[in-house]
Amino acid sequence: MGDVIPPNEEIKRPKPPLDESSVRGFNWWRRTFQYKTGLGLTTVEKDRYENDYQFIIQRDQCNKCYEYRDWLLKYSPTVIFMAQQIAKLNKKDTNALKFDESKIICDICPEWRSGGFHPELGILLCQNRIRDKWHLEDTMAHEMVHYFDNLKWQVDWLNLKHHACSEIRASSLSGECRFMQEFSRRGFGFKVSGGHQECVRRRATLSVMGNPNCKDQKHAEKIVNEVWDSCFGDTRPFEEIYR
């Protein structure tokens, strides 16, 4: 799990504009110009503009996130495959094997992460942290591995070994540690030989550090090392690691 869905009260949400026409076309351009230059706006109007601006940003981010989510559920081989595997584990009716798309939601995240999984609520995609469609694909795949693990093995997410195992698998199988992704993050600091494993270890350790039962980085590294061999080698439901 690692990245738990945050409670709503942690997220600052702007109010909808008082007048929808004020955030469209010429009126929005005029207000933006006044805000940037400080001409003709009272303190109250500046605060209202800032609220409206944040509202529009969050609305556009949300729309784009769901657009990407729906496209990936239809066209991404990795996401489609994981959705099928989750549906098989989660089926209530053997004649209706369909993934419940409502279990993947887009929202604002207060922290620097791209997604999260909650065993009761499902998958959260952090619309304000997603760089592009392909970043969202890796994020969805990562969280869907957690979803799969939770259904298949009834993971105890407060158990550090359980948590570390799923983080290792999610980082390894999602594609987020393939060469081009690591190169874009780390440049020439990325190792071609053994780079995949190094990336998986690093990202799993960071996620385990966020577990309330983890003391510090050394503790997280110790737990990751203890479960490494069995968990890194377990590629279910894939036949091999996607790189």
From TrEMBL:
It is found in: Mitochondrion inner membrane. GO terms for biological process: mitochondrial protein processing; mitochondrial proton-transporting ATP synthase complex assembly. It is a peripheral membrane protein. The keyword Hydrolase applies. GO terms for cellular component: mitochondrial inner membrane. It comes from the Eukaryota. Its EC number is 3.4.24.-. InterPro entries: Peptidase_M76_ATP23. It holds the Pfam family Peptidase_M76. It is an enzyme of class 3 (hydrolase). Keywords: Hydrolase, Membrane, Metal-binding, Metalloprotease, Mitochondrion, Mitochondrion inner membrane, Protease. GO terms for molecular function: metal ion binding; metalloendopeptidase activity. Has a dual role in the assembly of mitochondrial ATPase. Belongs to the peptidase M76 family. This is Mitochondrial inner membrane protease ATP23. It comes from Lachancea thermotolerans (strain ATCC 56472 / CBS 6340 / NRRL Y-8284).
